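User: structure tokens for this one?
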Amino acid sequence: MVICCLYTSELDHPAVVGFRDVFLTNAFNDNSAIIVYGCTPCSSTLQQAHMCDPTKLTSFSSPFNINRTVRPYSPLKNGPSDLGMLPESAVRSYLAQLTHGVRFIHKQVQRAFGVLDPTKELIQDEVLVDRYEDLHLTEDQAADFVQLKKLIVGAACGTSEAIQNAHRTASFNLLQGTYTPDRVTLLRNLNCGQVTDFDQLVPAIASFVYDQLTNVCDHPDFPERQLLLGMECNRLFRMVCKLQSLVERSDRNGSNPDWSETDVRYTLKLLRDFIFHQPDQLRASFLDLAHIITTLNKVETGSGERLYVVNQDGQNMIIVTYADIKQWLDASFAHLVDRHRQIRCDIRSSQYREARQ
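Assistant:
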């Protein structure tokens, strides 16, 4: 146990669930050793994901008992034999990820898994090997490849019955009718023990490992793209908040009640109408999200492009640049914030003076 813990504590690999701690306890009325592995939330085992559908047992269930008497009728037993095989792209992905973990244990840790079992492989966004044993090296590394074959065949056929020796012929018949000859040949070689070393496995999986590498490289790009979209939405949202805070204010505690309708604030009001209240050629409401986002982006970036804005009756027209609007928007909002702080400060000062009196 100590030797196992010493080298499991050195494990750090994305395809292997990490070892965390080990401690002794007598909570179960005996001397037990509790081994703690890393938590992988929202995951399921390979067996739970692909080998628990009872309808997929039909092609591996004989209608006869051992004494050749007919079994009672069962809708599952007499159902269709189409198992709904796992897509070959998923089989390639599982092979690449599982062999990734096997190579790490065989080559770098210099050990054998020994427990490649459907209940020990976790599926989340990737396949993780839950645990392994410290066994005799050479023969047990070779046995790992046979167990690897059983994992893939069981997941592909959708039932743990497919990995039983009695159903080997039926399993490979299903595989031959579904997958490419190269994939079936690879599984046969694993099953027959012809693959005893990882170097022998590399040529057979090299053709699709690069596809898996592409998926791995693309995986972090997706949340990054979503993050960029979120950042863009936040920028535009802040700009809309600033604009709506300035336009048509009805403050009564300021020195100039018509502040939002004068000077550059009036241009900002016309900009608001240009973005959100513009009519189309038929005088109907012009509701174009692309127009709204494009205009806001040009204002946010301070584009030098010119635009003209008009009031509702079409009597007044102002030609400005997006850069001017951005400058006026920021300056007016900063003035509004300063005035808000000054008013609050004056109110607190007045309350403080009244309290002292």
